[in-house]
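Bench log, entry 3. Co-assembly request; chain sequences pasted below exactly as received.
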Amino acid sequence: MKVLMPYFRRYHRDVWLALLSVIVLVFATLWQPRLLQVVMEAIIKNDQQTVFQQGLFLLGLAVLGIIGGIVNTIYSARVALGVATDLRADLYAHVQSLAFADVEKFSASNLVVRMTNDINQVQQIVMAGFQQITRIPLLFIGALILALVTMPQQWWVILAMMAIILLVCLVAVKRMTKYFGQTQQDIENVNTVARENLMGIRVVKSFVQEGNEIKKFSGASDELTNVTAKIGYWFAILMPAFFLTANLAVGVAVYIVGQNITTHPAYLAAITSFISYLMQILFAVINGGFLMTFASRAFISMGRIGEVLETEPSMTYVSGDDQPVQGDVTFEHVTFTYPGDDHPTLSDVSFTLKAGTMLGIVGATGSGKTTLAQLIARLYDPDSGQVKVGGVDVRQLPEKALRSTVAYVLQRSTLFSGTISGNLKQVQPDASVSHMQWAANVAQASEFIERLPQTYDAPVEERSQNFSGGQQQRLAITRGVIANPKILILDDATSALDARSEKLVQEALDRDLKETTTVVIAEKISSIINADQILVLDHGRVSGVGTHHELVANNAIYQAIYQTQKAREEGTVNE
Amino acid sequence: MSDLRNAGKYYWHYLKRYWRGFIVSMVLIAFSTWCIVVAPTYLGRAVEQLTTYLQQWSAPATRGQASLTPFNHTLIIYILLYVGDASTIFISSLILARVTAHSTGTMRVGLFRKLQRMKVQYFDTHSDGDVLARFTSDLDNIFNAMNQALLEILLAVAQFVGLLIVMFNQNATMAWVTMASTPLALLIAALVMRKAGVAVNQQQDDIGKLNGYINEQITGQKVLITNGLQQDSLKGFAGYNAKVRQSALTGQIWSGILNPLMQGMSLLNTAIVIFFGSWFALNGSLSTGAALALVVVFVNYAQQYYQPIMSLTSLYSMIQLAITGARRVDEVRNQPEETNPAQGHEMPAIQNGLKIDDVHFSYLPGKEILHGVSIDVHRGEMVALVGPTGSGKTTVMNLMNRFYDVDQGAITLDGTDIRQFDLQSLRANVGIVLQEPQLFTGTIADNIRYGDPQAGMDRVIDAAKQANIHDFITSLPAGYDTRVSDEQSVFSAGQKQLMSIARTILTNPRLLILDEATSNVDTVTEARIQAAMDNVIQGRTSFVIAHRLKTILNADKIVVLRNGQVIEQGNHQALLAEDGFYAELYRNQMVFD
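Structure output for the full assembly:
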């Protein structure tokens, strides 16, 4: 709730109009039985004048109610949409201000859910709030007071009715909460089996396990069915019980009126109004119960949104000169542990990389290659030690300066939907066509881009899925080099390229980006065999640094990797 | 309209077996409706009797005759009617709750059974998320509509009809007055619902685009940060968000306004009935008691009159969702199933070998992937398939255990077309190891004996040993009882792949297919898996599909596929000597001193 207050304040005019119209609506609803009572009295007295006059009042009141309803809906929607869109915008802006570690902590898909589903929940509860939630207590209290005013003696009938309804609710809710929890678990089980079978359909079929899988699924499904039925049974009790209670209360009330009619003859005209109020009380309680379950979900959503908004960015940047710095990189005793991990991913890593040279990084899966590269791009900060770019600790570099110095190309850094040129211009806003051609040439991408009907203005679909894996990587490299960065990191960025294209990319980098420092992470030794130095990582530690020949001679881990990729001498033909 | 018909057919298929329950419910609902619509007349009568009593009691001459007994009797009937209503509704709700839960369960299992019989093609052309949504949201919508709408619709229709009958029985003029505003209400409802339909569609479109944008940007947050594109991203977001604000406002207003409008109409209708009722009471020839009773009864009816319409309009969107859901699930129900020969033979042991003979194949009509591929494999040989991505390597595997069937040509085993074998027997004898080692929730042991759940621990351990994973498993605290769940994986890709190899070893297949089993691991891990694979291949006829050539250098025969055709074949030495495409691939992948 706290999260929403500032937004309500922003739309205070709409809020007040929505509330005011609710009051009008409730007044019209509750005052009708009151006027009915006057009409009944007039009938008893045979007073034509009053009947006619009150009739007009009744019609006017109904029209007022309709107008109240319309106005209320319009302003409730305005508040709900205003609050939801502003909240979403603030949430999105906040996420963009977060460091990558913070985004990882929540996980991207989780953040997306918070910006879509959770915001939607909030929007719905705000809408319902101004349409229903404010109305129900007003109706309840109003009907209660008017019922008591109409027949003060019968307070205990009202009390007894509410007590019984409350008791039924309590018992049912207690049982059903248990069943609802169980349903969640059962749904999860059913979905797990279904999902595993979809993903592993080839496995199921090739091991001929269809029958067993059906048995497994039926078991999970039957449990879900049984719990759903139980919930259904409780609901079956609930509604008839409510209405029976209310109608019994009506019967008792009318009976009492009858026994005392000689002392309170005026009650004859009040019976219908009193019944109406009793029914209003009942509806208020039922709707209140439904809204409560609905609201509890929205509160969870609000909590989840608040959690993101309250997360302070774990990384801040100094302000200062935005110009790129020199391309040399130094690691000094760098140790890094991922949040929530027991063991450091990098331990005491030190090396120096001169501007304009090439560094290759090799090591087994999980040895920390990508982590090391990410520290250069300052996606994370080290626990201890220093990462220096251009001789300056990256923590002392303004954000713009760092980003314009370092270009980072990932294995799956697909372009965003839009056009090729749009993506390139995001990085280099003043890029001309010939400049784009230059970058595409370096990445060996121009050959397929120029075959596209719209060349550089060709559309890029979501997840770049209208391009093959190799094309996606070449486009990503094009984006990486277009700003002619001082440092270029290729993180397994050529894995889908055939060896010939890969070689051509490296030659082009050597030729056209002479001043650029390149850091290449690769599975294949052939990708980094010509690097000025190669860093061998083993469980987060530097196992060796040197050229290919040096490492082959003296580094056991490098030798092991090399052995698995080395061609046997007798196999070579033209070498 | 055809959607509605299909949805109807779908429901009918699953609900017809519950016809007895439905008939009982209908009878009960008819009875409860009778109770509800008749009850107000007893209230009216009670008021009339009370008025008479009061009048008699007030006049000294008739005070002696005044009696409350008729009033008391009427009231008892009134209460009994509601007890009758509540208990019949209770029983029919019980029946319908049972029908709903069980029919949804049958639908769910029916869908799953169907999926198990369908062709692999369906799963290759539909995303898992889309199919899964049919189990979750679509079945949910179908359930919700039955759970909430079924009883309400039956009740609403019955009440409406019952109400009309009783009203006309009581007083035709007042009945017409009560109905007077109906055309206006229906007109408003139709208009608003049409507007809401259009506006909500637009709203959903815009929300879909916004969600798509958010999803793409946040998933690519690493790219945004490393390129410093956060401000650009915000700008793009603002555009989508503003659009949603506009269209969702219209959508929310139109879809939210129906309920208050109908409530307003109900207020208006009650006002009209009171107005005319009292005028009618005073200007007719009715006694005071009868006049009061008339107003009481018809005010009650006027308040009830709009309830069926209101509950139907509020159910409208729910029913729409259910129709869509039923259509989507029904779509699956009509998918073609795998064909198994009527009297298929058991697949025998391989005598001479397997022959792929001039096979043509296309996933999509007109887009042929394999253009006449022929490969001979002798018993006990290991054949490797290599070639660039998209050359058709994996397609050959798909044909071998009939995930797909050839368009032209044939795959024969010792001269018998594999399509003549019993499908289950064929698959039980063809073992595959896939690129993605899909494991299932359960213990490690369960996963290794997946293909033969009856297998004892000795066979499980034996298979694990052959796959070089036994030592790792025993090093775990729970050993073979360690839980595997595919989502929160504690195992590396390499370990999972070794378990999947053990799983295949345990079934002792006659023909083995390894489909790029090492493409997701580094080269050192690959060497370990290679050793396990060598154990499986030993003495078996096998196909190895490889991306990295290192794993297949020892193959008896290497077949090079390119663009759906065999361009070279022979062993490693021979192909190198040919100095063709294979030799080039090899030189590109390997490092030479």
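Chain B has a mean pLDDT of 86. Chain B has 19 helices and twelve strands.
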